[in-house]
Amino acid sequence: MPPGLGYPPAVPSIRGIFSAAGVALAATLLGSPDRPSWPLTLRDGLPAALPGYAAAPRDPLPDTDENEMGIYTEVSRFFQRIESATSTRQFRLVVQDYGRGKDLEAALRKAFSQASVAPSVETREVKLGAFPAFAVTDRSGPRPTTLVTVIVTPSRLVLGQGANVDWEEALKLVRLVDLEKVAGAR
Fold it and tell me: Which of the listed residues 21, 34, 91, 167 has the most CB atoms within 10 Å of its CB?
């Protein structure tokens, strides 16, 4: 570049800044090839396969959203089993992290209590290892819909969401999650 037509050599170009920022963002999100960094590490405890189910070709990137319990970061994996032309079972495993200092148990117990009085809804409170879990199955439609919520830390949940899946199968599938790894993800 001719002298006087550009940035002095000590000032990086805009293109260089954006390239460096893109590389830094990718390195932060993906981590090293051997070990991804948070929030991808939240997925470490989720199984890549479920017996009898086909996994989605790729996992969605971590996402941030908000519900009545607060803002959370979420990672997930999706599976389905096509049984016939008219019957498909779908199951999604999710980890939601609400951040330090949050205690979700009271809000979850309240929601579980409210669900238990709804018609056509079955509820069960169980333990998965040392972790409290709540299973809610809605049978108001032609096929059951089940949500299993496991409290792995006061601010981190594992969810099993099943369409055309009853609570027994949903619990069996959620038991395949390494809850200790999910609890310890950093």
Answer: 91
